[in-house]
Design a protein that fits this description.
Elements: E1 3-6, E2 10-16, E3 19-20, E4 24-26, H1 28-36, E5 43-50, H2 55-63, E6 66-74, E7 80-86, E8 93-99, E9 119-122, H3 127-136, E10 143-147, H4 150-155, H5 157-164, E11 169-173, H6 174-181, H7 186-194, E12 200-204, E13 210-214, E14 217-221, H8 235-250, H9 255-272, H10 286-300
Parallel strand pairs: 1-5, 1-9, 2-7, 5-6, 9-10, 10-11, 11-12
Antiparallel strand pairs: 2-3, 2-4, 7-8, 12-13, 13-14
Helix pairs in contact: 1-8, 3-5, 6-7, 8-9, 9-10
Bound molecules: adenosine monophosphate.
The site of adenosine monophosphate has 16 residues, from β2 and α8.
C-alpha cells in the first residue's frame, strides 16, 4: 500500500558519552523513510532541503527506494540543522541548537503521483505543515500516524491541538506525553491525549520499550537489551518508520496488527542506536532484520506452564 512520509531532512551534530560528530545526515523523514523502506517501495517523501544537502545522501535515499519527487531543494538556503547532547544514561538529551533554515518557510508540495496515499506518516515538523499535508491530499488516507516533540508543544501548542484532531495514531515519548497531558501517570496521560483526537497512542520509553493504547486496552513491547548503544538520535523516527511501514505492507490497521507493528518498529530502532546517525539503517541485510524480530519474540514470550 502506498506510503507518504513528511518530515525534516537535516544535518545533525550529536554528542554522546561515546563521541561527537560534525554535521551528519539526519532528520525525521530521513530516518522514517529508511526504516519503512524495509517494508514498502517506493516510500514517497515530502520535505525540503537547502543547497548544502549532499547529492550522495539523495542518491543513497533513492537507492533505498525513496521517491524524492516531493523533496524541494532551495538553491539559496541552508538545510535544517539540529544539535543535541545526550546525558550519561543515553535516555535523555538536551537540544543545543535548532536552526529551522529552510523549514522556517516550508510550504509542502504534494505531487500528483502521491495522491494515491493510503498510509501517511507525519514526521516531526511544524504542526502547521503537518496539517497542510493532510489538507492537500484529495482523499483522506486510511491511516494517519503523527510524531511530534516538546519543541512544538513549547512554540505551537494551539496548532498542535488542531493537527491532533485530524490523525489516527500519535507516537511520542513518555516525557512528551506527560508534557502534553499534564499527567504523570502514563495511563491517565493516554486517556487525556486520546480525547484530543488520536484513537491510538504509542508512548515510547527509550531503552525500556513502548506502550500502545487504544480505548481501554494497552499493549507493552519490551526494549531489547543491547550490548552497544552509541547514539539514540533518530531511534524514535526509525521506530515510527518501521511501525507504519509494517502496517502499510500488511494493510491491516487492527489493534492486533498494531502490536506486531510495534515490534517491527522496535526492531528497526534497535539497529539505529548501534551506530552514529542513520549509518546502521543503510543496506541492512534482511536476515539481520528477521533475526532481530525473533529476538523480540523470544524476549517476551512465556507460557503459564499450566495445561488448559
Ligand atoms: P528522534 O531522535 O527520533 O527524536 O529524532 C531526531 C531527529 O529529529 C534528528 O535527526 C533531527 O534532525 C530531527 N529534529 C530535531 N528537532 C526537530 C524539529 N524541531 N523539527 C523537525 N525535526 C527535528
Amino acid at each position: 500500500m502506498s506510503l507518504v512520509v513528511v518530515g525534516s531532512m537535516a544535518f545533525d551534530a550529536i554528542e554522546t558519552p561515546f563521541g561527537k560528530t560534525d554535521k551528519i545526515l539526519g532528520g525525521a523523514a530521513t530516518y522514517i523513510s529508511l526504516a519503512s523502506s524495509y517494508f514498502v517501495e517506493p516510500v514517497k517523501a515530502i520535505s525540503v532541503v537547502g543547497n548544502d544537502f549532499e547529492q550522495r545522501d539523495i542518491a543513497m535515499l533513492e537507492d533505498h527506494g525513496v521517491d524524492m519527487e516531493g523533496v524541494q531543494v532551495k538553491k539559496d538556503e541552508k538545510s535544517f540543522f539540529w544539535s543535541g547532547r545526550y546525558h550519561n544514561d543515553m535516555n535523555s538529551r538536551d537540544t543545543l541548537v535548532t536552526e529551522l533554515n529552510v523549514l522556517g518557510t516550508f510550504d509542502p508540495i504534494v505531487p500528483d503521483s502521491y495522491q494515491d496515499c493510503s498510509y501517511l506518516m507525519l514526521g516531526n515538523l511544524s504542526p502547521d505543515v503537518q496539517r497542510l499535508v493532510v489538507e492537500r491530499l484529495k482523499n483522506r488516507p486510511k491511516l494517519v500516524v503523527m510524531d511530534t516533540m516538546n519543541f512544538w508543544m513549547d512554540v505551537a501548542l494551539d496548532s498542535l491541538h488542531d493537527t491532533l484532531k485530524l490523525i489516527d495514531v500519535l507516537v511520542i515519548n513518555d516525557e512528551e506525553a506527560r508534557q502534553l497531558s499534564g499527567e504523570y501517570s502514563l495511563k491517565k496521560a493516554a486517556q487525556k491525549i486520546m480525547a484530543m483526537g488520536p484513537k491510538y497512542l504509542v508512548i515510547k520509553k527509550g531503552e525500556h520499550g513502548a506502550l500502545l493504547f487504544h480505548q481501554h486496552e494497552v499493549f507493552s513491547a519490551p526494549g531489547l537489551p543491547l550490548e552497544e548503544v552509541f547514539d539514540p538520535t533518530g531511534a524514535g523516527d526509525t521506530f515510527a518508520g518501521g511501525f507504519i511501514g509494517y502496517l502499510a505492507l500488511t494493510d491491516d490497521i487492527s489493534f492486533n496488527n498494531m502490536k506486531r507493528a510495534i515490534i517491527f518498529g522496535s526492531a528497526l530502532a534497535s539497529f539505529c542506536v548501534e551506530k552514529f546517525g542513520p549509518e546502521k539503517l543503510i543496506n541492512l541485510p534482511q536476515e539481520e532484520v528477521d533475526a532481530r524480530i525473533q529476538q523480540f519474540v523470544a524476549l517476551s514470550h512465556f507460557d503459564l506452564g499450566v495445561e488448559a
